[in-house]
């Protein structure tokens, strides 16, 4: 009888519970997660219900949508660099609820303190091989000349190499520098560098955050093989006018932000300029009487960022982004030549965000981007100029739809019209006796359609799968491709996740460069009949552990990437003013593989990460087009291949006024090509005998390993008004002479001029460089 | 009329200079010029088998001379090595074979060293093809073929002084000639001051890729003073020799330029390294006044 009553009680309880569940409705909570400081949206912020083990991530505008059962819920809202907020909410209907997160510290150079939410979020998401970086993170770390550079900070992450000492170029998992898609608020930036790669075009004052995708690419991204660098700019403070800026060793910057209409719209304007030229002109002036003194050319760069947003009702918001930057280099030679070299990007984006319902919203953007360089040379009445540019107009639309709590769909289309001016030459004279012009222009149209679904099959299993259809045409040459994408996460335990991903990528535009580095004179070129699109596939698997009560996240990823139609150029290729550039291309294959270990800590007074990668990158260009290919068709390591790469980054908040930072980098030596043999050439006439180097193989020599420690300190001042700090940096703290390149020098007999001996010389670029920057905000 | 080849060359050099001066300018800013940023290092290069090196410029009216040497590991000490076991045979357009004598010496006009020499002054006209055959007793065998290009005449030489006074008063020089429209043509311009035995004051090569059939104008910067004696030589060269010159320049530039890709030398001969060509040139002598 007692057993019967127990069963009955249990049955009644079960039925009531079931009825109760059936009676509970689902409602959608939606809104924005914003920074309390400037009201800008926080893309990637997490809104979670820890008790239910569920949550969502805010989109690129900071918008989130979370469907829950009715009732009381404890919400945790978190984002890197912001204090995690918990909020209890009684959900009785679908409702909008926006959150404002306070910055982790109100200092200018604050130590990042965040809740464990973001590490848990990284553990739980299906997305792998991604690095998120906020401008606040980058501002803390020591920087070359004190110039904060987000791309250089990304180089401290495993799987990312730089292109040489001090450069901001990215080489991601064996990909070359032109295989990165740089997006500034959805618009492509073709040349992300100032000063021949030493600084990036992204002014940290204007940037909110950067996401770097190294693999497992979501279906909405395409067009490059190796990485996506998605840069989001800051929105202005919609409540009050503010001014911030900094005075540095080589540049100064200023940002103004404020409301357009209070709480309806805001703007941000940022600008910076270097003043190398001020110093070099003084040096030239001091030496103008020195015999044989060769004046230092003028060089400076400047850039402006602008962002504005405006709400039109409850469901619509407009965003306008602009960027304009130029590098200027020039000099007047004693021989009478005037030389001016100007290059830079111009970018504009207009985006419309429309919320149909909390579960359905649309982002549509129209963007225009242009990269151009122009070199002008003058002598007396004669003038010569060489220029090149790529110009895009693009329209894209992305629709996010969450039909239920298990699925999140994303659909999108995009169309881009390219205009490639691969070389414009002109020569003229003021007397009209010379007037020559040459120009090669190609058109190109690129389009894509994609669909993806994030499917929560169970608490343990979550999948993200998608398909991207891309097409490209240039003249009568057409290409199309299907690019499948997929990733999966399986939770072995609440603190252990297994992940895997696959992505196929196509690249229809190619960088024409035989410099081995990104230079301003590199030309973008479309896929054509004889220049096929580049293609790559990447598989990656990983495991993540949340350790130390959620304070640490340990991740290990293994990847293998293989690529076809990789591009190189014939020896001695004529890349300037060549109307038949197709004939200069060489095509080959590439593959890279490696293991990346990453331990990060983001809570407490001491934060940072340790990254280690073991990797191989290889290329092969067989004999073709009447030549022997590259390296006689044999496999070789490109210059950015590094076997070992260790980075250690630490940030410590000593007290309320002082933050200390340090970073250490160790990488294996870079491959380089050295001449193995030589012969002497007398030539037809002349008394000089020249040694001519012979290079039988490419990149067979490894330079010495690279290692460097940087130290930094942020000291908060106490001004009467606003905030200010002094940021100290010491680049290359122990003054390591890292190899930049090696060359062979020739010693000559002083009387006869005959070669006597040869020696190998190693050149280093930067010794220890201390710097200080004054930052202010009011 | 075409002035921009020279300017293009200037441009290329400026770009190269720019790419190297950027970091240097940065260094200057931090006072790093005083730092020693270069050092000697030990480099172990793999074994490099020696190849025969041939340098031979045939010229109508001149007794043919040829220099044979061999390649060496780059960092080895330069030691004069005379290869005594090399035989050289020149095949004339008529099919006649001429064995060169091994008579090491120095050309009194060009100051160049040579190892082998023909018997008689060369008889050649544009379009004539010669063959070269060089062998040694170790089985190394170098072969080459060269055709004499037509002669292109310098139409005019024009110079103009700047407005400066005294020592700073300099003139630039323009060299004008007509490019044939029917062919792809390649040129080398050399300007010597006072004597062709010295290194040329200006020396560059170019093609007519963008200016086929036009009146070409090549120029210099303001660099010549009053009473300078200039020897202006315009070579009409064939494509293999043009490529050889370009590749030698590229190979030399790659040593010391971190942005340059290493380039292999494109010899005009097979089986070894070097150049075999027939010179066709027009030379004019002027005094700048």
From TrEMBL, chain A:
Annotated signal sequence range: 1-23
Bilayer topology: Multi-pass membrane protein
InterPro entries noted in UniProt: Beta-barrel_TonB_sf (IPR036942), CarboxyPept-like_regulatory (IPR008969), Plug_dom (IPR012910), Plug_dom_sf (IPR037066), TonB-dep_rcpt-like (IPR039426)
The keyword Transmembrane is assigned to this record: yes
Keywords on record: Cell outer membrane, Membrane, Receptor, Signal, Transmembrane, Transmembrane beta strand, Transport
Entry GO terms, CC: cell outer membrane
TonB-dependent receptor plug domain segment(s): 146-224
Major localization listed first in the record, in broad terms: membrane
One record GO biological process: siderophore transmembrane transport
Subcellular location: Cell outer membrane
Statement: the UniProt record of this protein carries the keyword Signal: yes
GO molecular function terms noted in the UniProt entry: siderophore uptake transmembrane transporter activity
Transmembrane segments: none
Family: Belongs to the TonB-dependent receptor family.
Protein name: TonB-dependent receptor
Organism: Hymenobacter metallicola
Automatic annotation (TrEMBL), chain B:
InterPro entries xrefs: DUF4249
Source taxon at top rank: Bacteria
Pfam family, one: DUF4249
Name used for this protein in its record: DUF4249 domain-containing protein
């Amino acid at each position: 009888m007692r057993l019967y009553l127990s069963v009955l009680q249990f049955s009644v309880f079960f039925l009531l519970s079931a009825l109760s569940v059936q009676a509970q409705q689902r409602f959608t909570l939606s809104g924005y997660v914003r920074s309390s400081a400037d009201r800008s949206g926080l893309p990637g912020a997490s809104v979670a219900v820890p008790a239910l083990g569920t949550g969502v991530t805010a989109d690129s505008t900071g918008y989130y949508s979370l469907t829950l059962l009715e009732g009381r819920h404890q919400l945790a809202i978190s984002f890197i660099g912001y204090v995690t907020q918990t909020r209890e909410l009684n959900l009785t209907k679908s409702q909008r609820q926006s959150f404002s997160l306070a910055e982790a510290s109100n200092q200018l150079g604050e130590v990042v303190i965040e809740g464990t939410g973001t590490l848990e979020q990284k553990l739980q998401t299906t997305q792998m091989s991604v690095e998120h970086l906020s401008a606040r993170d980058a501002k803390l770390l020591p920087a070359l000349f004190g110039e904060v550079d987000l791309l250089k900070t990304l180089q401290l992450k495993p799987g990312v190499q730089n292109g040489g000492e001090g450069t901001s170029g990215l080489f991601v998992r064996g990909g070359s520098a032109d295989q990165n898609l740089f997006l500034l608020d959805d618009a492509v930036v073709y040349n992300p560098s100032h000063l021949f790669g030493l600084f990036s075009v992204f002014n940290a004052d204007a940037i909110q955050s950067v996401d770097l995708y190294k693999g497992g690419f979501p279906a909405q991204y395409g067009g490059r093989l190796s990485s996506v660098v998605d840069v989001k700019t800051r929105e202005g403070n919609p409540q009050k006018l503010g001014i911030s800026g900094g005075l540095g060793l080589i540049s100064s910057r200023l940002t103004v932000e404020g409301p357009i209409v209070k709480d309806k719209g805001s703007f941000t304007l940022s600008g910076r300029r270097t003043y190398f030229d001020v110093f070099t002109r003084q040096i030239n002036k001091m030496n103008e009487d020195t015999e044989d003194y060769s004046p230092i050319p003028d060089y400076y760069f400047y850039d402006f960022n602008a962002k504005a947003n405006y709400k039109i009702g409850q469901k619509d918001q407009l965003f306008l982004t602009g960027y304009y930057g130029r590098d200027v280099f020039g000099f007047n030679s004693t021989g009478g030549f005037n030389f001016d070299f100007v290059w830079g990007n111009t970018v504009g984006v207009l985006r419309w965000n429309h919320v149909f319902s909390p579960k359905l919203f649309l982002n549509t953007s129209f963007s225009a981007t242009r990269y151009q360089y122009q070199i002008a040379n003058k002598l007396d009445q004669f003038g010569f100029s060489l220029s090149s540019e790529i110009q895009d107009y693009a329209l894209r639309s992305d629709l996010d739809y969450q039909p239920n709590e298990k699925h999140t769909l994303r659909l999108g289309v995009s169309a881009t019209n390219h205009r490639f001016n691969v070389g414009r030459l002109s020569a003229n004279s003021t007397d009209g006796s010379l007037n020559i012009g040459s120009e090669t222009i190609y058109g190109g149209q690129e389009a894509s359609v994609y669909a993806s679904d994030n499917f929560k099959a169970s608490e343990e299993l979550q999948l993200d799968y998608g398909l991207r259809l891309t097409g490209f045409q240039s003249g009568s040459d057409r290409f199309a491709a299907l690019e499948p994408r997929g990733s999966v996460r399986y939770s072995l335990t609440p603190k252990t996740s297994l992940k895997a991903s696959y992505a196929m990528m196509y690249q229809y535009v190619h960088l024409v460069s035989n410099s081995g580095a990104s230079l301003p004179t590199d030309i973008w070129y479309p896929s054509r009949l004889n220049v096929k699109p580049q293609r790559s596939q990447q598989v990656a698997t990983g495991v993540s552990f949340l350790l130390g009560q959620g304070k640490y996240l340990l991740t290990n990823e293994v990847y293998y990437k293989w690529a076809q139609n990789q591009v190189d150029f014939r020896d001695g290729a004529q890349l300037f003013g060549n109307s038949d550039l197709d004939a200069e291309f060489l095509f080959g294959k590439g593959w890279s593989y490696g293991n990346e270990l990453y331990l990060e800590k983001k809570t407490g007074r001491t934060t940072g990460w340790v990254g280690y990668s073991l990797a191989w990158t290889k290329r092969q260009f067989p004999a073709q087009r009447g030549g022997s290919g590259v390296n006689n068709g044999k496999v070789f390591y490109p210059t950015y291949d590094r076997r070992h790469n260790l980075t250690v980054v630490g940030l410590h908040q000593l007290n309320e006024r002082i933050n200390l930072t340090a970073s250490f980098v160790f990488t294996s030596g870079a491959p380089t090509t050295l001449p193995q043999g030589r012969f002497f050439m007398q030539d037809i006439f002349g008394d000089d005998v020249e040694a001519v180097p012979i290079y039988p193989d490419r990149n067979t020599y490894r330079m010495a390993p690279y290692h460097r420690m940087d130290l930094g300190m942020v000291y908060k001042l106490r001004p009467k008004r606003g905030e200010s700090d002094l940021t100290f940096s010491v680049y290359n703290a122990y003054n390591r002479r890292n190899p930049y390149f090696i060359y062979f020098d020739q010693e000559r007999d002083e009387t006869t001029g005959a070669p006597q001996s040869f020696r190998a010389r190693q050149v280093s670029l930067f010794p220890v460089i201390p710097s200080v920057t004054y930052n202010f905000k009011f | 009329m075409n002035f921009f080849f020279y300017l293009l060359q200037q441009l290329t050099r400026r770009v190269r200079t720019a790419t190297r001066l950027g970091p240097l300018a940065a260094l200057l800013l931090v006072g790093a010029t005083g730092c020693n940023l270069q050092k000697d290092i030990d480099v172990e290069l793999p074994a490099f088998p020696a190849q025969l090196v041939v340098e031979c410029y045939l010229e109508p009216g001149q007794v043919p001379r040829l220099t044979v040497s061999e390649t060496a590991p780059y960092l080895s000490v330069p030691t004069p090595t005379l290869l005594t076991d090399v035989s050289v045979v020149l095949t004339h357009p008529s099919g006649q074979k001429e064995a060169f004598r091994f008579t090491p010496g120095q050309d009194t006009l060009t100051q160049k060293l040579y190892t082998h020499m023909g018997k008689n002054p060369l008889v050649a006209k544009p379009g004539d093809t010669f063959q070269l055959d060089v062998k040694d007793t170790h089985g190394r065998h170098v072969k080459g073929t060269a055709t004499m290009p037509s002669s292109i005449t310098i139409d005019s030489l024009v110079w103009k002084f700047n407005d400066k006074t005294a020592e700073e008063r300099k003139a630039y020089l323009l060299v004008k000639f007509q490019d044939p429209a029917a062919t792809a043509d390649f040129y080398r311009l050399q300007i010597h001051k006072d004597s062709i035995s010295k290194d040329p004051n200006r020396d560059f090569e170019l093609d007519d890729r963008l200016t086929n059939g036009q009146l070409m104008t090549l120029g210099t910067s303001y660099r010549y003073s009053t009473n300078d004696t200039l020897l202006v030589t315009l070579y009409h060269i064939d494509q293999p020799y043009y490529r050889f010159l370009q590749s030698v320049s590229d190979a030399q530039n790659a040593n010391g330029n971190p942005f340059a890709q290493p380039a292999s030398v494109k010899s005009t001969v097979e089986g070894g390294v070097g150049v075999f060509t027939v010179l066709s040139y027009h030379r004019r002598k002027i005094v700048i006044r």
